[in-house]
Amino acid sequence: MDDLSKKITDRLEELRVHLQADGGDLEIVGIDGKTVQLRLRGACGGCPHAAMTIKGGLERILREEIDPEIVIERVL
Questions:
Q1: Which of 4, 30, 32, 62 is a Cys-bridge partner for 37, taking CB atoms 3.0 to 4.6 Å apart?
Q2: Can you give the residue ranges of every domain in the chain?
């Protein structure tokens, strides 16, 4: 795992607790460069706010803290 992938993985693991507190979770399907594939699970999987959680929450945090070019793709 390269340094960027490790930073992304570590930060997403820290953020999981917030999803788990709402009955959801996330699964990292894959990381290819600056593209992260995530699957939302539990309550988050069917939530109408899932796209907002990914783009406005998780992706924004990763872009601000790690790299402004990171993109999260939701995998169903």
A1: 30
A2: 3-74
pTM of the model: 0.91
Q: Residue 16, class by beta-carbon neighbours within 10 Å (0-12 exposed, 13-18 middle, 19+ buried)?
A: middle
Return the CATH architecture of domain 3-74: 2-Layer Sandwich (3.30)
Tokens (6 digits) for 45: 């999987």
Q: Could you give the CA distance from residue 68 to residue 71 in angstroms, rounded to a whole number?
A: 9
Alpha helices in 25-74 (DSSP H): 50-52, 60-65
> Which residues have a Cβ under 8 Å from the Cβ of 62 and sit 6 or more positions away?
8, 11, 12, 36, 70, 72
Cβ atoms within 10 Å, residue 30: 11
